[in-house]
Design goal:
25 strands, six-stranded antiparallel beta sheet, alpha+beta, about 500 residues, ten-stranded antiparallel beta sheet, flat
Length: about 500
């Protein structure tokens, strides 16, 4: 007991020592027994749910909401001032100053009412002259168009007769505009007389029908026209069509150019960005400013100064021929040589061996040295001597189809070479077992010979010697045309040099 009490005494002594060394504490005020109004009515509605303080806070919130709605402003319409009462004179004055769309039938603006001195007319006077423009329809006639325009039947028949004597009425195309002027009529029940009619019959001709104090008469007005063709050149670049259009070529002309060029070579494979295109277009322009663009006359393609294609439109059918005078190719297999068939497909007696055996092709009659063409695109799989066939070329066209050409005098292709439809692969001869110059032509499907006569050929036209000279002369003239020369300003007729006077005229006009 003594030790325990001594221990407690020691602890108390230590505590007392600490208390003496601790700094004095600031006395804290005692909590007020009462609470403020905010602490009593405002609380957190998320805590102590269901307590008296929570219900007081909720009641205060609802009361504030009710008070806010009670003082909510009124949005009812405000009454404006009563509209002014306007008299008729005032209303007309306001209307004269309004801006009303004419499309809605506006009738605003100042107007003056008629006075007693104004006397109304029984009939309004007619216009002395009526000028109008009439257009000839596609399936229309000249007389019917004139009658619809108000021309009398007699005048319409006379105009049709006068114009028909100047040119065939069929040449007046649909859409042609006629400027018509009708004069004063003596009686309202009668049609107006025709005083003047003018229209453009052709680019180089304007016709006018006029009445100058007498019957209708026709006047021809010849218009000077420049027929210089339009030549357009440029670099292919990223695309042939886009480059030609950027150079100023019309879309129709570019399409004709691409079609002609596509029959001569493979545009996708054989045309590069550095090539130069060259086209000449039929082009006519009148001194009055009108222009007529015709067909493409020449389609060319050059690579580093060397011509890749030179195609000229020639003949009445408007086909393109290359510089050698060979016509353009059409769709399908072309005839391998320009000549008639001499011997058909099937069993026959061989003219040299004197035995009957199958003749697995067609023999075409042709002169020695005449060119032989590939019937369609393909690859040369054989080119050389082949027994009785002599000089022989075989082409693989894909899809199991192949063709053979025998008895050539000379071969113009090599093995492995790709050829295009219409390309010259050799020349007619009489090598091998042959009795004279001709072409022996065979066709194979799946490795077996078939009758070539079962396939329709397209003949490639060849110009005669006389036509070829004219053809090349025109080709040279077209290539002399300066690019863009047709777009240069026309020299006025007054500035053209006068025709030289003949010596006889000068003598006859000399003073005596």
């Amino acid at each position: 007991m003594t030790e325990a009490s001594d221990g407690r005494s020691a602890v108390r002594a230590m505590r007392a020592a600490r208390a003496e060394t601790r700094p004095p504490e600031t006395p804290t005020p005692k909590a007020q027994s009462g609470t403020t109004l905010a602490e009593k009515w405002v609380g957190d509605l998320g805590s102590d749910i269901g307590s008296a303080r929570w219900f007081r806070s909720l009641g205060l919130l609802i009361s504030l909401i009710v008070v806010a709605f009670a003082f909510w402003p009124d949005f009812s319409a405000l009454h404006a001032a009563a509209p002014a009462r306007l008299s008729d004179e005032e209303r007309d004055e306001y209307r004269s100053q309004m801006i009303t769309p004419l499309a809605l039938g506006a009738d605003s603006g100042r107007r003056m009412g008629p006075l007693r001195l104004v006397v109304p007319l029984a009939n309004a006077p007619e216009r002395p002259v009526v000028e109008l423009t009439a257009t000839l329809g596609k399936e229309d006639t000249l007389a019917a168009m004139l009658r619809r325009a108000g021309v009398s039947g007699n005048d319409a028949a006379r105009v049709e007769e006068l114009i028909g004597n100047a040119l065939p009425l069929e040449q007046i195309g649909g859409g042609t505009s006629f400027d018509i002027r009708l004069g004063r009529r003596a009686n309202p029940s009668q049609p107006r007389p025709l005083e003047n009619l003018t229209f453009r019959a052709r680019l180089d001709l304007e016709l006018a029908v006029a009445r100058e104090g007498g019957p209708l008469a026709l006047e021809r007005r010849v218009i000077r026209v420049d027929d210089t063709p339009l030549r357009i050149t440029g670099t292919v670049g990223s695309g042939l069509y886009r480059a030609a259009r950027a150079a100023g070529a019309p879309a129709k002309s570019v399409q004709q150019y691409l079609k002609a060029l596509g029959d001569a070579l493979d545009i996708n494979r054989e045309v590069s960005a550095g090539d130069n295109f060259d086209m000449v277009i039929a082009y006519r322009r009148a001194e009055t400013g009108e222009v007529e663009v015709g067909d493409v006359l020449y389609a060319g393609l050059d690579r580093r100064g060397s011509p890749r294609a030179q195609l000229l439109r020639w003949g009445k059918d408007g086909r393109f021929y290359d510089a050698n005078g060979q016509g353009e190719l059409r769709e399908g297999l072309i005839r391998p040589v320009n000549g008639a068939v001499g011997s058909g497909f099937g069993m026959r007696r061989h003219p040299i061996l004197k035995i009957r055996r199958p003749h697995n092709g067609l023999d075409f009659r042709a002169r020695s040295g005449q060119p032989i063409f590939a019937v369609t695109d393909g690859t040369v799989i054989m080119a050389g001597r082949n027994g009785g066939f002599g000089n022989f070329v075989k082409l693989n066209h894909g899809g199991g189809l192949a063709t053979g050409y025998a008895h050539m005098s000379r071969i113009a292709v090599n093995r492995g070479q790709r050829v295009k439809r219409g390309q010259v692969i050799g020349y007619v001869g009489s090598t091998g077992l042959s009795t004279g110059p001709h072409l022996h032509y065979e066709m194979y499907r799946g490795g077996r010979a078939i009758n070539p006569a079962s396939v329709d050929f397209v003949v490639r036209q060849q110009l005669s010697a006389a036509e070829l000279r004219q053809f090349r002369s025109q080709l040279i003239e077209l290539k002399k045309v300066k690019p863009g020369a047709a777009l240069e300003p026309l020299v006025p007729a007054s500035a053209l040099p006068a025709e030289p006077q003949r010596e006889a005229d000068r003598l006859s006009n000399a003073p005596g």
